Amino acid sequence: MLTEPNRTTVQISNHLSKLTVNPKRGGAIDELVLNGRTIIQPMEGLGYESSLLFPFPNRLAEGKFSFQGQSFELPQNDDGRPNALHGLVHDKAFEVTASSEYSVTLVYNYDGSLPYFPFPYSLQVTYTLEATSLEMNVTAKNTGNQMMPWGFGWHPYFLVEKVDECALQLPKVNKIHADDMLLPNGKITAENTYNTATQIKETEFDTCFKLSDKQGLNHTHLYYPDGSLLDIWQEDLFPFIQVYTPADRKTIAIEPMTCGVNAFNSGDELKFLDSGNDWSMRFGLTYSGVE
């Protein structure tokens, strides 16, 4: 069922599952219920809730980058750190362009008018809801007349109530170590702690991991205290996973990313789009409750 109350939010439902999307908040998810369990809900004090992160995810050092002989400087918005954070679309109004009983498509068109990112683009996202799963299909298109650099990520906070009692299992990854500005410091080590489901306990995450063995579809498993499982999957086009635990320990962010932190400067898996070209990608969630 699709409902669109005053166009402020768009809601679709499928049996015991429900998705509420907010076009005016960057096309982000306001609420997600899968098979009766609340996976995502509005939380006070958190930023970038379920935001689409484009044209770059995560941090950009000092907001500065150079491309094809030109230098650019984006506003610094990283809570006191001298970085640009999480791209340019999280607070933009998207347009609903298609909807059906179990899916909705939204688009944002950018005209390239900002001097610090003069690259026009369109970003389209389709949410498809099933009884126990959500799939997201995203297409980025270069609508300008010159090549553009880009990266994409998604920033969900999963409601767990007690992070310490949850368990986490990562795919085969390396840990990207960071400095005080939460930027990569050049140190990379194999991450073995979460090769199997391991209780998080008091561990604090604001950590980027990079896939070391791509599997086509790559799975991060989050186990709730009752044993239920949330499978966060991502294509090989997303070789990074950012894990973040907010201070209240009631949620955990597990963020698929197409490029590394500060990729506009490091080039770590940074992508490029020629004029008129597009790139499509998909990722999603599957929930398995305890019988």
From TrEMBL:
Keywords: Calcium
SUPFAM superfamilies hit by this protein: Galactose mutarotase-like
GO MF term (any one): aldose 1-epimerase activity
One example of a Gene Ontology biological process annotation: glucose metabolic process
Listed InterPro entries: Aldose_1/G6P_1-epimerase, Gal_mutarotase_sf_dom, GH-type_carb-bd
One Pfam family linked to the record: Aldose_epim
Cofactor requirement: Ca(2+)
Assembly and interaction partners: Monomer.
Protein name (database record): Aldose 1-epimerase
Provenance organism: Roseivirga pacifica
